[in-house]
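# step 3/5: fold
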Amino acid sequence: MAYLTLNKTKLKENYEFLKNIFQENGIAWGVVSKLLCGNRLYLQELINLGVTEIHDSRISNLAMVKRLNPDVQTVYIKPVSKRNVGKMVEFADVSLNSELETIHWISEEAVLQKKNHKIIIMVETGDLREGVMGEQLIDFYSQVFNLPNIEVIGLGTNLNCLNGVMPSTDKLIQLSLYKQIIELKFNKKIPWVSAGTSVTIPLMLTHQLPKGVNHFRVGETLFFGVDLFEEKVIDGMHGDVFELHAEIIEMQEKPMLPVGNLAANPQGEVAEIDEELYGQTSFRAIVDIGLLDVDPKYLLPTDNSIEILGASSDMLIMNLGDNPNKYKVGDILTFDLKYMGALGILNSNYVDKKVIS
């Protein structure tokens, strides 16, 4: 069976790297754990690092965090549906919100549960996912700041999540100004400008982050060490916290081109024929993972001599050329992962999850 490994030493070093730069800049932050899909083993590793704030988009994952350590502050990071308000208030200490009616429901539920619920009001800054339009923000805040059992602790935004709009100094200054206007108008303190995510970290590293931004929500850079502006691993961080290991279940020398009348495969793809390859052969390996678990475009073989040819639901097909490394049936091939690849595998019940040092 294929299995995924999390290297806890490399994860710790990535965490300490981020912890230090946030401390140097006087910024609070929480870890976005949605990549882990509620995996108890991996969530425990986060908590073992000393993480005190965990963000997730699934209430069941936050419930797992609370079972592991009830003292961790949990943050629900998408608008909650009406039928899930009760569970969200039960397991999330904080939530991100952009709908007045939803906040009223949260207030009513918080009163019933005798809890104080904190909210971050999300503001639209151009990427066109969730968020209140800027010109409506003052009126929006005026209708929620006095609701019972509700505490507005921040203004937030999301960038690069839908349309790829990148964060900029100007956009983040704008959000900080909204905070200042609200504080002056209502004589209320808003502790956080939560405008930082993994994609914003490069602005901080290059000293372009406005001082008003004082809270980050970080997942991808923690787990992959990546600078999302340059799309490369940040110096001092690790890009291979996660690795996928899959066993070779067939190894044969075969023609490089299919033989017969071609039609679309179950994925709707039709093979492209390079006539120069007629008559040529190569060693092809099949490994025990497939489309049910991960899209092959998010896999990166650690052996650069290997090429991914395609996949069916449960098998991944590899081109090994003349097999210079003498792979055989039963050997393990290792892959680095892009974020969406790790997400698919962590969401699969068919891939074992392990922790290594």
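# step 4/5: annotate
The mean pLDDT is 95.
# step 5/5: archive (pending)
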